[in-house]
Amino acid sequence: MSLKEICKPIKRDLEDYEQEFKRILKSNVFLIDKVIQYIIANKGKRLRPILVILTSRLHNGNGAVLEKRNLKAAAIMELLHTATLVHDDVVDGSNQRRGVPSVNSIWKNKVSVLMGDYLFSKALLAMLSLKSMRAYQIISETAERMAQGELLGVERRKDYWMEEEVYFRLIGDKTASLLAAACQLGAVSSSDDEEDIVAMKDFGENLGLAFQIRDDLLDILGKEKKTGKPLGNDIRDNKVTLPLIFALRQAKRGEARRIIRMMKRNAKRREIQEIVSFVEYHGGIDYAMKKANGYLELAEKSLERYPDTPYKDSLTKLVSFVTTRES
Amino acid sequence: MSLKEICKPIKRDLEDYEQEFKRILKSNVFLIDKVIQYIIANKGKRLRPILVILTSRLHNGNGAVLEKRNLKAAAIMELLHTATLVHDDVVDGSNQRRGVPSVNSIWKNKVSVLMGDYLFSKALLAMLSLKSMRAYQIISETAERMAQGELLGVERRKDYWMEEEVYFRLIGDKTASLLAAACQLGAVSSSDDEEDIVAMKDFGENLGLAFQIRDDLLDILGKEKKTGKPLGNDIRDNKVTLPLIFALRQAKRGEARRIIRMMKRNAKRREIQEIVSFVEYHGGIDYAMKKANGYLELAEKSLERYPDTPYKDSLTKLVSFVTTRES
After folding, report:
1. Cα gap B279→B220, rounded to integer Å
2. Which of A131, A149, A172 is the last residue of a domain?
3. Angle, CA of B249, B253 and B258, to the nearest 5°
4. What is the pTM of this model?
């Protein structure tokens, strides 16, 4: 099941969203426009706006045209996501993003830092027009979780014996928080029922945990052409992910230490292949997949309270898309 | 008149503010705490919280203890300011800030970018507890102006023939906007009268323009020991400021071109001295001072509507402090 098929019921909404997104980003500074055009031309999966729209529709029923505030909510989430990507490229020193040169590698750190801030301010301004304190609360709390998660990630780089619990806190704050916020914003912009908002938080959070575990798996298993990123990137960067955490604890101490030494002195291409085999042999990949599936089951549970609609159907399909996707 | 004397009527308020600022910044990530402690130990003039407190008091009268929301507003402004400083050090590649190593030079770009984002998210969370849509609007619009101004600055670096109008737009967005926001937040957190907010916007904006012109002058005239920054930094960075803009237009074309060539090939220490003399000879310094004084007169006008209080008196003194300060 492709993302395109999943999005069939909201095809029109997504087009309206694109317009809204572009409208929000109009600027009268030439440099800003140039960078924004580049970002729009190389847009990603749009997972976050898709989540906002599907969860808006889940609560809002069948209006022919999605209301402006739902489109705005979708744009806000994509703005926040894009802002963090642009900053992440500076943070990670990445040259590639979505298979093309990163903003950072074309315009350098200076412009990337400022563009991230600019996109963030645009998200705030769009929020303002939602006139919802609840939405504002969700966004501020999410912004804090994300920055905190990223900093915890920096602190725990090379922490090869990290507890699973820390790993889950890390990916929860860094990734799941934003997907949870997207689903909550869908609910907030269409419903006044606090139980809806809680259900959507759980849905998004669990989906997000599974999403990030899949991301970590793709770094090991994926096809470079599809992900647009060099494989074994996390291993090279000494980023500790679930499959590795599990494998290191399963292996004999001596073997684990040998693998860690390899990573510490910046593993070469051939060594990365060896580390991948090590993780696979000790069941790290199976374990991570099982964990991801557990979170997806929890996500599906949160949808039970809603009546059957094409939107609920799409959200259910999205859940299985997350663990089968190849990019 | 020193800033300390100016702040006498709000000495107690400033102590309460310090507590609030520290309370907001508590975190459970070790790395975050370390960076924050460093920032707090090397705090600057606290001009923005001082402005919030004085303008709060200007509207709020004489309560023995300043209300919590006023202290929060003060902390929000300092958080925003600190966030932009931390990002600025990445943007400018500066190693020094306030006479000590910058966050960037100790913890590198990665941590600086993320810490800036973290501080920004903390400002948003503190905003949330103000429960004021008007305050939220001011902050979002200011965040956009600041990021836009910074990006315009990047675009116009080395634009030696920049019109004065562009220069004023630039420093208005980059610097004056935040001082205006501080004064507006003081009004918003103490008054419901929209005219107060407008008066405070004008006051802060004009004060901010004068403040930045003085900053640009200090780069040329200042004492390295007092400013904590190497002199002629702007010239070395090819940043075009008012004294230079004026001097280049006053000088004969040929001489101006020679100065520009010198800057383009990254002026050496001895050449920077020559450029400073050039600016002085052609009246760039006098002109900038006159302009700054013009804005200060406008700022004073905005205070006329208020009754005489120690707080109005301090704000008036602050106005002259801005053009006489040496750091």
Report:
1. 9
2. A131
3. 105
4. 0.92
DSSP string, A56-108: HHHHH---SS--HHHHHHHHHHHHHHHHHHHHHHHHHT-SEETTEE-HHHHHH
- Structure tokens belonging to residue B30: 């070790």
* CATH code (residue A178): 1.10.600.10
Residues A66 and A154 reside in one and the same domain: no
**Residue A3 CA: distances (Å) to CA of A49, A75, A79, A326:** 13, 18, 20, 11
B29 at A interface, C-beta within 8 A: yes
Q: In the predicted model, is pLDDT for residue B229 greater than 70?
A: no
Q: Cβ of A220 under 8 Å from any chain B Cβ? A: no
Nearest neighbour of B30 by CB, restricted to A84, A150, A155: A155
Would you list the DSSP string of A190-230? T---HHHHHHHHHHHHHHHHHHHHHHHHHHHHS-HHHHSS-
Dihedral pair phi/psi, residue B294, rounded to 5°: -60, -45
Residue pair A202/A302 in contact (Cβ under 8 Å)? The answer is yes
> What is the C-alpha to C-alpha distance for residues B215 and B210, in angstroms, rounded to an integer?
9
C-beta atoms of B154 and A111 within 8 A: yes
Q: Are B140 and B221 in contact (CB under 8 A)?
A: no
Residue A224 Cα to chain centre, angstroms:
19
Burial letters for B186-222: b for 16+ Cβ neighbours within 10 Å, e otherwise? bbbbbbeeeebbebbbbbbbbbbbbbbbbbbbbbbbb
Write out the residue range of the structural domain in which residue B257 sits: 3-324
Question: Can you tell me the distance from the alpha carbon of B37 to that of B54, in angstroms, rounded to the nearest whole number?
Answer: 26
Asked if residue A160 and residue A70 are part of one domain, the reply reads no
Tell me the chain A residues in contact with residue B128 when contact means C-beta distances shorter than 8 Å.
133, 136-137, 140
B174 reaches A (C-beta below 8 A)? no
Same domain, A190 and A122: no
CA distances to A235, B76, B204 from B4, rounded to whole Å, are 53, 21, 20
Whether A213 and A258 map to the same domain: the answer is yes
In a domain, A29, yes or no: yes
Residue A124 and residue A25 share a domain = yes
Q: Taking the mean position of all CA atoms in its chain, how far away is CA A313?
A: 21
| Structure confidence at residue A227 (pLDDT) | 67
Cα of first residue to Cα of last residue in chain A, in angstroms, is 13
What pLDDT sits at residue B12? 95
- Tell me what pLDDT residue B296 has: 96
d(CA A218, CA B298): 60
Which residue matches tokens 């402005």? B51
User: Does the beta carbon of A178 lie under 8 angstroms from any beta carbon of chain B?
Assistant: no
Query: Lowest mean pLDDT: which of A1-10, A20-29, A84-93?
Result: A84-93
Could you tell me if A106 and A218 lie in one domain? no
Closest residue by Cα to residue A130 from B131, B122, B133, B192: B133
With beta carbons under 8 A apart, name residues in chain A contacting B29.
148, 151-152, 155
